[in-house]
Amino acid sequence: MEDLINVQKIIVPEIFELLEKRYDILRTVAMLHPIGRRSLANTLKMGERAVRTEIDFLKSENLVEVTTAGMCITYEGINIIEKLKSFIYVIRGISELERKISRLLGIKEVIIVPGNIEEDEYVIDDIGKKASKVIEKVISDNDIIAVTGGSTMSTVAQGISKTTKTKNIVVVPARGGLGKNVENQANTIAAEIANNLNGKYHLLHVSDTLCDEALASILHDPKIKEIISKVKKANLLLFGIGRADKMARERELSKEILLKLQNKNAVAEAFGYFFNKEGEIVYEMNTIGISLNDFVKTPCVIGTAGGVKKAEAIMAISKLNKNMILVTDEGAAREIINIST
Predict the structure, then answer these.
(1) Do the bridges between strand 268-270 and strand 273-275 make them parallel or antiparallel, or are there none, so unpaired?
(2) pLDDT of 164-191, one tens digit each?
(3) Which CATH number describes the domain made up of 94-340?
(4) In what side-by-side order are the strands of the sheet with 281-284?
(5) Which fold has domain 2-91?
Protein backbone atom coordinates (compact mmCIF):
# COMPACT_ATOMS: atom_id res chain seq x y z
CA MET A 1 0.00 0.00 0.00
CA GLU A 2 2.78 2.44 0.90
CA ASP A 3 4.61 1.83 -2.41
CA LEU A 4 1.42 2.40 -4.41
CA ILE A 5 0.64 5.62 -2.56
CA ASN A 6 4.21 6.88 -3.09
CA VAL A 7 3.82 6.34 -6.85
CA GLN A 8 0.44 8.10 -6.85
CA LYS A 9 1.94 11.03 -4.92
CA ILE A 10 4.46 11.49 -7.70
CA ILE A 11 1.90 11.27 -10.51
CA VAL A 12 -1.04 13.13 -8.93
CA PRO A 13 0.24 14.99 -5.82
CA GLU A 14 -2.67 17.45 -5.94
CA ILE A 15 -5.15 14.70 -5.02
CA PHE A 16 -3.34 13.97 -1.77
CA GLU A 17 -2.99 17.67 -0.95
CA LEU A 18 -6.74 18.11 -1.37
CA LEU A 19 -7.46 14.97 0.63
CA GLU A 20 -5.30 16.16 3.54
CA LYS A 21 -6.91 19.60 3.42
CA ARG A 22 -10.44 18.20 3.61
CA TYR A 23 -9.42 15.75 6.31
CA ASP A 24 -7.98 18.60 8.40
CA ILE A 25 -11.17 20.64 7.92
CA LEU A 26 -13.41 17.73 8.95
CA ARG A 27 -11.24 16.93 11.96
CA THR A 28 -11.20 20.56 13.11
CA VAL A 29 -14.96 20.93 12.74
CA ALA A 30 -15.40 17.70 14.70
CA MET A 31 -13.19 19.00 17.50
CA LEU A 32 -14.50 22.57 17.70
CA HIS A 33 -18.11 22.39 16.55
CA PRO A 34 -20.10 24.53 16.34
CA ILE A 35 -17.49 26.72 14.69
CA GLY A 36 -17.85 29.72 12.38
CA ARG A 37 -16.19 29.98 8.98
CA ARG A 38 -13.80 32.74 10.07
CA SER A 39 -12.71 30.86 13.20
CA LEU A 40 -12.15 27.73 11.13
CA ALA A 41 -10.06 29.67 8.61
CA ASN A 42 -7.94 31.19 11.39
CA THR A 43 -7.44 27.83 13.10
CA LEU A 44 -6.31 26.16 9.87
CA LYS A 45 -4.43 29.24 8.62
CA MET A 46 -6.45 29.18 5.41
CA GLY A 47 -8.20 31.93 3.49
CA GLU A 48 -11.93 32.33 4.15
CA ARG A 49 -12.73 31.92 0.47
CA ALA A 50 -10.87 28.59 0.30
CA VAL A 51 -12.64 27.41 3.45
CA ARG A 52 -16.03 28.42 2.04
CA THR A 53 -15.36 26.40 -1.14
CA GLU A 54 -14.39 23.28 0.80
CA ILE A 55 -17.28 23.59 3.26
CA ASP A 56 -19.74 23.88 0.38
CA PHE A 57 -18.38 20.60 -1.00
CA LEU A 58 -18.40 18.82 2.38
CA LYS A 59 -21.93 20.05 3.02
CA SER A 60 -23.08 18.72 -0.35
CA GLU A 61 -21.70 15.31 0.66
CA ASN A 62 -23.56 15.50 4.01
CA LEU A 63 -20.28 15.44 5.96
CA VAL A 64 -20.84 18.77 7.70
CA GLU A 65 -23.94 20.70 8.64
CA VAL A 66 -24.11 24.50 8.60
CA THR A 67 -26.35 26.04 11.27
CA THR A 68 -26.86 29.53 12.66
CA ALA A 69 -24.56 28.60 15.57
CA GLY A 70 -21.80 27.46 13.22
CA MET A 71 -20.63 24.38 11.37
CA CYS A 72 -21.04 20.91 12.90
CA ILE A 73 -19.83 17.47 11.92
CA THR A 74 -22.40 14.89 10.86
CA TYR A 75 -22.47 11.19 11.69
CA GLU A 76 -21.24 10.47 8.16
CA GLY A 77 -18.43 12.98 8.65
CA ILE A 78 -17.25 11.23 11.81
CA ASN A 79 -17.21 7.90 9.97
CA ILE A 80 -15.13 9.40 7.16
CA ILE A 81 -12.59 10.80 9.64
CA GLU A 82 -12.13 7.40 11.27
CA LYS A 83 -11.80 5.62 7.93
CA LEU A 84 -9.28 8.17 6.63
CA LYS A 85 -6.97 8.10 9.67
CA SER A 86 -4.86 5.11 8.62
CA PHE A 87 -4.68 6.45 5.04
CA ILE A 88 -3.50 9.87 6.26
CA TYR A 89 -0.82 8.10 8.34
CA VAL A 90 0.53 6.48 5.18
CA ILE A 91 0.32 9.69 3.11
CA ARG A 92 2.33 11.61 5.70
CA GLY A 93 4.84 8.79 6.11
CA ILE A 94 3.95 8.27 9.77
CA SER A 95 4.66 4.53 9.78
CA GLU A 96 8.20 5.02 8.46
CA LEU A 97 8.67 7.94 10.87
CA GLU A 98 7.69 5.68 13.79
CA ARG A 99 10.29 3.10 12.79
CA LYS A 100 12.96 5.77 12.36
CA ILE A 101 12.34 7.39 15.75
CA SER A 102 12.30 3.98 17.44
CA ARG A 103 15.74 3.25 15.97
CA LEU A 104 17.09 6.69 16.89
CA LEU A 105 15.92 6.47 20.49
CA GLY A 106 16.66 2.77 20.86
CA ILE A 107 13.33 2.03 22.56
CA LYS A 108 10.80 -0.75 22.13
CA GLU A 109 8.09 1.08 20.17
CA VAL A 110 7.09 4.55 18.98
CA ILE A 111 3.55 5.56 18.09
CA ILE A 112 3.05 8.92 16.38
CA VAL A 113 -0.10 10.94 15.71
CA PRO A 114 -0.15 13.52 12.90
CA GLY A 115 0.24 17.18 13.79
CA ASN A 116 1.98 19.29 16.41
CA ILE A 117 0.36 19.94 19.77
CA GLU A 118 1.96 23.39 19.86
CA GLU A 119 0.05 24.37 16.72
CA ASP A 120 -3.11 22.34 17.32
CA GLU A 121 -4.07 21.82 20.96
CA TYR A 122 -6.47 19.05 19.99
CA VAL A 123 -3.57 16.80 19.01
CA ILE A 124 -3.42 16.01 22.75
CA ASP A 125 -6.70 14.13 22.36
CA ASP A 126 -5.21 11.99 19.60
CA ILE A 127 -2.16 11.22 21.77
CA GLY A 128 -4.46 10.27 24.64
CA LYS A 129 -6.59 7.99 22.45
CA LYS A 130 -3.53 6.26 20.98
CA ALA A 131 -2.00 5.72 24.42
CA SER A 132 -5.27 4.32 25.76
CA LYS A 133 -5.35 1.76 22.94
CA VAL A 134 -1.80 0.70 23.81
CA ILE A 135 -2.85 0.19 27.43
CA GLU A 136 -5.83 -1.94 26.42
CA LYS A 137 -3.48 -4.03 24.27
CA VAL A 138 -0.76 -4.68 26.87
CA ILE A 139 -2.65 -5.10 30.15
CA SER A 140 -3.22 -8.51 31.67
CA ASP A 141 -5.16 -9.92 34.60
CA ASN A 142 -3.78 -8.99 38.05
CA ASP A 143 -1.68 -6.08 36.73
CA ILE A 144 -0.78 -3.20 39.01
CA ILE A 145 -0.78 0.02 37.00
CA ALA A 146 0.96 3.14 38.28
CA VAL A 147 0.03 6.46 36.67
CA THR A 148 1.30 10.02 36.94
CA GLY A 149 -0.77 13.18 36.60
CA GLY A 150 -0.93 15.77 33.83
CA SER A 151 -3.21 16.96 31.04
CA THR A 152 -2.08 14.28 28.60
CA MET A 153 -2.62 11.50 31.11
CA SER A 154 -6.12 12.87 31.72
CA THR A 155 -6.97 12.36 28.04
CA VAL A 156 -5.49 8.85 28.24
CA ALA A 157 -7.87 7.98 31.07
CA GLN A 158 -10.85 9.32 29.12
CA GLY A 159 -9.96 7.23 26.07
CA ILE A 160 -9.85 3.84 27.79
CA SER A 161 -12.74 1.57 26.87
CA LYS A 162 -15.18 0.25 29.46
CA THR A 163 -15.45 -3.08 27.63
CA THR A 164 -12.14 -4.58 28.75
CA LYS A 165 -12.22 -8.22 29.88
CA THR A 166 -9.18 -8.00 32.16
CA LYS A 167 -9.66 -8.96 35.81
CA ASN A 168 -8.22 -7.88 39.16
CA ILE A 169 -6.59 -4.70 37.83
CA VAL A 170 -5.29 -2.31 40.50
CA VAL A 171 -4.43 1.30 39.61
CA VAL A 172 -2.35 3.54 41.86
CA PRO A 173 -0.98 7.08 41.54
CA ALA A 174 2.75 6.94 40.86
CA ARG A 175 3.38 10.28 42.58
CA GLY A 176 1.83 12.61 45.09
CA GLY A 177 -0.41 15.47 43.96
CA LEU A 178 1.00 18.33 41.89
CA GLY A 179 -0.68 21.44 40.51
CA LYS A 180 -4.09 22.99 41.11
CA ASN A 181 -6.32 21.26 38.55
CA VAL A 182 -8.12 18.36 40.20
CA GLU A 183 -8.88 16.65 36.88
CA ASN A 184 -5.14 16.42 36.11
CA GLN A 185 -4.13 14.97 39.49
CA ALA A 186 -2.68 11.45 39.56
CA ASN A 187 -5.36 10.40 42.08
CA THR A 188 -8.20 11.49 39.79
CA ILE A 189 -6.64 9.84 36.75
CA ALA A 190 -5.93 6.60 38.63
CA ALA A 191 -9.55 6.40 39.77
CA GLU A 192 -10.91 7.04 36.25
CA ILE A 193 -8.62 4.46 34.64
CA ALA A 194 -9.58 1.88 37.28
CA ASN A 195 -13.29 2.51 36.74
CA ASN A 196 -12.89 2.19 32.97
CA LEU A 197 -10.97 -1.07 33.39
CA ASN A 198 -13.46 -2.45 35.93
CA GLY A 199 -10.61 -2.52 38.43
CA LYS A 200 -9.76 -1.16 41.86
CA TYR A 201 -7.75 1.89 42.82
CA HIS A 202 -5.88 3.32 45.79
CA LEU A 203 -5.35 7.04 46.36
CA LEU A 204 -2.26 8.83 47.61
CA HIS A 205 -3.43 11.91 49.50
CA VAL A 206 -0.04 13.60 49.66
CA SER A 207 1.34 16.66 47.91
CA ASP A 208 4.45 16.14 45.77
CA THR A 209 5.90 19.49 46.85
CA LEU A 210 6.18 18.98 50.62
CA CYS A 211 9.36 19.86 52.51
CA ASP A 212 11.75 17.06 53.48
CA GLU A 213 10.63 17.03 57.12
CA ALA A 214 6.95 16.67 56.22
CA LEU A 215 7.67 13.89 53.73
CA ALA A 216 9.76 11.97 56.24
CA SER A 217 6.91 12.15 58.75
CA ILE A 218 4.23 11.06 56.26
CA LEU A 219 6.24 8.03 55.14
CA HIS A 220 5.77 6.53 58.63
CA ASP A 221 2.01 6.37 58.10
CA PRO A 222 0.97 2.67 57.63
CA LYS A 223 -1.60 3.49 54.94
CA ILE A 224 0.91 5.54 52.94
CA LYS A 225 3.45 2.72 53.30
CA GLU A 226 0.92 0.24 51.93
CA ILE A 227 0.18 2.34 48.85
CA ILE A 228 3.85 3.08 48.17
CA SER A 229 4.49 -0.66 48.34
CA LYS A 230 1.92 -1.24 45.60
CA VAL A 231 3.43 1.56 43.50
CA LYS A 232 6.83 -0.11 43.68
CA LYS A 233 5.31 -3.44 42.61
CA ALA A 234 3.66 -1.94 39.52
CA ASN A 235 4.36 -3.86 36.31
CA LEU A 236 2.91 -1.16 34.06
CA LEU A 237 3.70 2.54 34.36
CA LEU A 238 1.91 5.33 32.48
CA PHE A 239 3.61 8.70 32.65
CA GLY A 240 3.91 12.06 30.97
CA ILE A 241 7.33 13.39 29.95
CA GLY A 242 7.89 16.93 31.19
CA ARG A 243 10.21 19.75 30.16
CA ALA A 244 12.63 20.68 32.95
CA ASP A 245 11.86 24.42 32.93
CA LYS A 246 8.09 24.02 32.99
CA MET A 247 8.08 21.32 35.68
CA ALA A 248 10.49 23.29 37.85
CA ARG A 249 8.01 26.15 37.87
CA GLU A 250 5.08 23.83 38.62
CA ARG A 251 7.02 22.35 41.52
CA GLU A 252 7.67 25.89 42.77
CA LEU A 253 11.43 25.41 43.03
CA SER A 254 13.55 28.29 44.33
CA LYS A 255 15.38 30.75 42.07
CA GLU A 256 18.67 29.20 43.15
CA ILE A 257 17.59 25.73 42.00
CA LEU A 258 16.15 27.13 38.77
CA LEU A 259 19.52 28.71 38.05
CA LYS A 260 21.27 25.43 38.89
CA LEU A 261 19.04 23.54 36.46
CA GLN A 262 19.76 26.11 33.78
CA ASN A 263 23.52 25.97 34.34
CA LYS A 264 23.48 22.16 34.21
CA ASN A 265 21.43 22.18 30.99
CA ALA A 266 18.44 20.29 32.39
CA VAL A 267 15.99 19.42 29.63
CA ALA A 268 13.62 16.84 31.16
CA GLU A 269 11.80 15.97 34.37
CA ALA A 270 10.20 12.74 35.52
CA PHE A 271 9.31 11.42 38.99
CA GLY A 272 11.03 14.36 40.72
CA TYR A 273 14.32 13.89 38.85
CA PHE A 274 15.76 16.42 36.39
CA PHE A 275 17.92 15.20 33.50
CA ASN A 276 20.28 16.68 30.93
CA LYS A 277 20.35 15.67 27.25
CA GLU A 278 22.44 12.60 28.03
CA GLY A 279 19.84 11.31 30.49
CA GLU A 280 22.08 12.07 33.49
CA ILE A 281 20.51 13.26 36.75
CA VAL A 282 21.38 16.90 37.43
CA TYR A 283 18.98 17.45 40.32
CA GLU A 284 16.87 15.19 42.53
CA MET A 285 13.89 16.14 44.67
CA ASN A 286 12.86 14.27 47.78
CA THR A 287 9.39 13.24 46.60
CA ILE A 288 6.96 10.46 47.40
CA GLY A 289 6.06 7.60 45.08
CA ILE A 290 7.92 5.86 42.27
CA SER A 291 11.69 6.29 42.16
CA LEU A 292 14.07 6.32 39.22
CA ASN A 293 15.22 2.82 40.17
CA ASP A 294 11.58 1.64 40.10
CA PHE A 295 11.12 3.23 36.68
CA VAL A 296 14.18 1.52 35.24
CA LYS A 297 13.04 -1.88 36.54
CA THR A 298 9.37 -1.61 35.47
CA PRO A 299 8.85 -4.17 32.67
CA CYS A 300 6.43 -2.04 30.66
CA VAL A 301 6.44 1.76 30.61
CA ILE A 302 4.31 3.98 28.38
CA GLY A 303 5.49 7.58 28.05
CA THR A 304 3.48 10.38 26.44
CA ALA A 305 4.56 13.81 25.22
CA GLY A 306 3.97 16.05 22.23
CA GLY A 307 5.29 19.17 20.57
CA VAL A 308 8.61 20.39 19.20
CA LYS A 309 9.65 21.76 22.60
CA LYS A 310 9.38 18.29 24.16
CA ALA A 311 11.86 16.68 21.73
CA GLU A 312 14.94 17.02 23.97
CA ALA A 313 12.99 15.83 27.01
CA ILE A 314 11.81 12.74 25.13
CA MET A 315 15.34 11.96 23.99
CA ALA A 316 16.70 12.25 27.53
CA ILE A 317 14.04 10.04 29.15
CA SER A 318 14.35 7.43 26.39
CA LYS A 319 17.89 6.70 27.55
CA LEU A 320 16.63 5.40 30.91
CA ASN A 321 14.41 2.44 29.98
CA LYS A 322 14.72 0.74 26.60
CA ASN A 323 11.44 -1.12 27.17
CA MET A 324 9.56 2.16 26.85
CA ILE A 325 6.66 2.62 24.46
CA LEU A 326 6.48 6.27 23.39
CA VAL A 327 3.27 7.92 22.20
CA THR A 328 4.01 11.32 20.69
CA ASP A 329 3.14 13.63 17.81
CA GLU A 330 4.63 14.42 14.43
CA GLY A 331 6.05 17.75 15.65
CA ALA A 332 8.17 16.15 18.37
CA ALA A 333 9.21 13.28 16.11
CA ARG A 334 10.50 15.49 13.30
CA GLU A 335 12.34 17.71 15.80
CA ILE A 336 14.06 14.62 17.23
CA ILE A 337 15.32 13.88 13.72
CA ASN A 338 16.50 17.50 13.31
CA ILE A 339 18.43 17.32 16.58
CA SER A 340 19.92 13.93 15.73
CA THR A 341 21.24 14.90 12.28
Answers:
(1) antiparallel
(2) 677 888 888 887 655 556 667 888 888 8
(3) 3.40.50.1360
(4) 242-243, 268-270, 273-275, 281-284
(5) Arc Repressor Mutant, subunit A (1.10.10)
